[in-house]
Specification:
Elements: H1 6-28, H2 51-58, H3 62-73, E1 76-80, E2 83-86, H4 92-95, E3 113-114, E4 120-121, H5 130-137, H6 146-171, E5 181-182, H7 183-200, H8 206-209, H9 216-230, H10 234-243, H11 249-265, H12 275-285, H13 292-323, H14 325-335, H15 346-349, H16 353-365, E6 372-376, E7 382-383, E8 389-390, E9 395-399, H17 400-403, H18 407-410, H19 430-443, H20 457-474, E10 475-479, E11 487-490, E12 494-497, E13 500-505
Parallel strand pairs: 2-9
Antiparallel strand pairs: 1-2, 3-4, 5-13, 6-9, 7-8, 10-13, 11-12
Length: about 500
């Protein structure tokens, strides 16, 4: 196993030191507990401390543990002295409502960022104040709708063309498909370059290099991990700020360069639109409120959210399709008319019902986020379906890796990857099918929910459809070890490894 670099090793040593001291302190105060949740079962230690959650997050297995606990204890599991995890699809619309009366828990403060001067600032994801969140999204919300997504499609196309060219150069040169491709890595590379293209009309350089650029992947992985650790015990988060908490350094530096370059040139280097041009238009109209720091915040947010979310979903599509020969064969048949037409247009990809079913199932079965979406119960409290009462101030939440596998919402086979669930059954009438679809969509928390749903959902869907369709119409692929399982690490974002494939150029029939 490769050794971590010096900066990472120092940070991890510091974190482990703080963790050890914190556990010692936790043991000394073990019997501090909240009596109002005594009727809720869970691990014994959960009644007294959150430190056990820090440990399983540090190990990268929090969602796996949470799934097991819900199987053991039922729909409501006590995860901390004042924390309840729910597997209740009927409450999704209540807890994650459009009214925003269930505010985010203090956990999210661990995701605060820094401006160019190193000062801590809230971002759209981290702010707990609903009015602040609305104010942050108001000027830019329109740029993430369907019509603006279409304006970004040309720059995304140029990145997909580069992706397909680089895969062919690296892995199809001999034509015999004998060279192994680490597809999970290459999907990350296009994830980075694609969002950078949509931000600035230029790639970041991942695809050309075939590797990390400016340690951006390392920085983002460490920052993601740190959020999942420190969010459990905010005292650790506050301490780590003094020794240098990891942030998206490479991403921020690249964004600053592009913002400065655009400022010197005065407009987009292409006639095509990009996010920096959208944001600069806002700055011209309101230069006092929208500073370069504001634009930096927006562009870095785009990179952090899009790269991980899109990559996770496309990785799941590739992995589960190649693991299931019948699914792969059916998808190949549906895509046959588009062979030789990559990059596939979004409007064409959306017209393919089986591809759509695969995308929806990948989003459900492999959510990009691995953590519980925590909220604070409002003053009036919450009555659960079983009649138990959660008083105001209780921290409650659902993890998409749990609720997205709920059999009531998704069927008896919710624990397996099955695109057929998103298609109308042969004996199913229209009303029954629509009711079933509605039930599944309402329970799906992969994009978040309610007022704090992912702002970039439309952009992300465009990327997923286009990248997945273009990849499968251009190449025939097979897993190197089809019987082996991939490795999953879940923190803020879920990371995988082990999607090794052989690939050949696909020819039209």
């Amino acid at each position: 196993m490769a050794m971590p670099d010096y900066d990472t090793a120092i940070f991890l040593f510091s974190f482990e030191l703080v963790l050890s001291l914190s556990i010692a302190l936790a043991v000394s105060s073990l019997w501090n507990t909240s009596s109002h949740l005594e009727s809720f079962d869970g691990p014994f230690i959960a009644k007294h401390t959150r430190f056990w959650q820090l440990v399983i997050n540090y190990q990268g297995r929090a969602s796996k543990v949470q799934q097991k606990l819900h199987k053991q204890y039922g729909a409501a599991v006590r995860m901390g002295p004042n924390h309840i995890s729910l597997d209740e699809p009927s409450l999704v619309k209540t807890i994650y409502s459009t009214s925003g009366n269930y505010i985010k828990s203090p956990l999210y403060s661990a995701a605060n960022s820094r401006n160019a001067n190193g000062e801590e600032i809230e971002i759209i994801f981290s702010t707990r104040n609903e009015a602040t969140s609305t104010a942050m999204k108001r000027p830019i919300g329109k740029y993430y709708n369907h019509s603006h997504a279409l304006r970004l499609e040309p720059v995304l196309d140029s990145c997909i063309q580069m992706f397909l060219r680089r895969l062919e150069e690296e892995f199809c040169g001999k034509g015999d498909g004998s060279k192994i491709c680490d597809m999970d890595k290459w999907l990350y590379y296009i994830g980075w370059d694609a969002m950078h293209m949509m931000n600035f009309s230029s790639p970041m350089g991942f695809l050309e290099k075939g590797g990390d650029v400016d340690n951006s992947m390392k920085d983002m992985a460490l920052a993601s991990d740190c959020f999942s650790w420190c969010g459990q015990v905010l005292e650790i988060d506050r301490f780590l700020k003094y020794i240098g908490k990891p942030i998206f350094v490479g991403t921020a530096v690249s964004s600053l360069k592009q913002i400065a370059l655009r400022g010197a040139k005065g407009k987009s280097p292409r006639s095509t639109s990009d996010f920096l041009e959208f944001f600069t238009e806002l700055q011209r109209a309101d230069p006092k409120s929208i500073t370069d720091d504001t634009i930096l915040n927006w562009t870095v947010n785009n990179m952090g959210a899009s790269v991980n979310s899109v990559t996770a979903v496309v990785e799941a599509i590739v992995y589960y399709v190649l693991k299931n020969p019948m699914i792969y064969a059916r998808m190949r048949r549906e895509l046959e008319p588009l062979v030789g037409k990559a990059p596939v247009a979004w409007k064409d990809a959306q017209q393919l019902p089986y591809l759509d079913a695969i995308v929806q199932e990948a989003i459900r079965f492999h959510p990009p986020g691995g953590f519980t979406l925590e909220r604070v119960v409002p003053q009036e409290g919450l009555i659960l379906p079983d009649g138990r009462f959660l008083p105001g101030g209780t921290i409650v939440g659902m993890n998409a890796w749990v609720v997205n596998r709920n059999k009531t919402a998704f069927g008896f086979d919710a624990g397996i990857f099955n695109p057929e669930r998103w298609l109308k059954g042969e004996t199913e009438d229209d009303d029954t099918f629509e009711a079933r679809l509605s039930r599944m969509r309402n329970a799906n928390l992969s994009w978040g929910g309610g007022k704090r749903m992912c702002l970039g959902k439309q952009i992300g869907l465009m990327e997923v459809f286009k990248i997945a369709a273009s990849l499968f119409v251009t190449f025939d692929m097979q897993l190197v070890e089809p019987e082996e399982d991939w490795e999953i690490t879940d923190t803020l974002f879920v990371r995988v490894s082990g999607i090794e494939v052989y690939m050949k150029k696909r020819m039209a029939v």
